[in-house]
Amino acid sequence: MTTHSPLVRVHEAHFSYGHEQVLHGVSLSVNPGEILAITGANGSGKSTLLELIAGTNIPSHGHIERIAPVALVVQRPNIPAGLPLTVADVVAMGTWRTRAPRAQVRESITNALSRVGLPGFERRDFAQLSGGQRQRTLIAQGLVQQTPVLLLDEPLASLDADSREKIHEILRAEANHGTAVVLVTHDQDSQGLADRTVTLRDGRIAPHVILSGGIDL
Ligand SMILES: Nc1ncnc2c1ncn2[C@@H]1O[C@H](COP(=O)(O)OP(=O)(O)OP(=O)(O)O)[C@@H](O)[C@H]1O
Q1: 3-class SS at 17?
Q2: Counting atoms of ligand 1 from 1, which one is nearest the CA of 186?
Q3: Nearest atom (ligand 1) to Cα of 203
Q4: What's this model's pTM, rounded to 2 decimal places?
């Protein structure tokens, strides 16, 4: 982990869906080169917090300081049923910012698919992939963006042990290159991978408690 200044700062963020307040004054920083895990029970506000960090939702009070571009890897993309998208099309959605020549973009798509264990999948129909293959396609979409901040919502949820291992290695490699990696997770293994874990409880950051016997709560 590096000691450079944060790439994202969340200041006292509040968020409501209609009358339901989901986040109550959450503050945190995301540093370059670290893997930060956001954990917590179902409904505690993890995905909502990730969306605020990504800028796809805006806090009702408080604010988010984004010093660098971010990429968000969602759990389930909003792709209308019946739209004939190939795997390459879905990964290419991550390249909208780039002005690189087409051949270079194609090469980055091919590389990203190889990295996530889907070599040669470019022309496959995205809708016909398995859940784990879709998840890895979305991770490839995040990787091609090459942003200093990579946010992932439950990236390992549908993956088998080998794929998890591969994605762990990729996330660690990204962090070693200075990327700030933030993942929402329930998964004990991913919490082990993280340099730092923040737990949400009912929309607030839970205090980190270490009992005298060394048990970390
Ligand atoms: N689009 C939405 N409209 C209304 N309420 C929502 C919406 N999205 C989430 N919520 C509500 O906000 C609360 C927090 O949801 P969120 O998805 O952020 O939690 P989470 O910790 O990521 O949950 P999980 O572990 O189940 O994915 C829940 O009560 C949920 O019902």
Answers
A1: strand
A2: 25
A3: 14
A4: 0.91
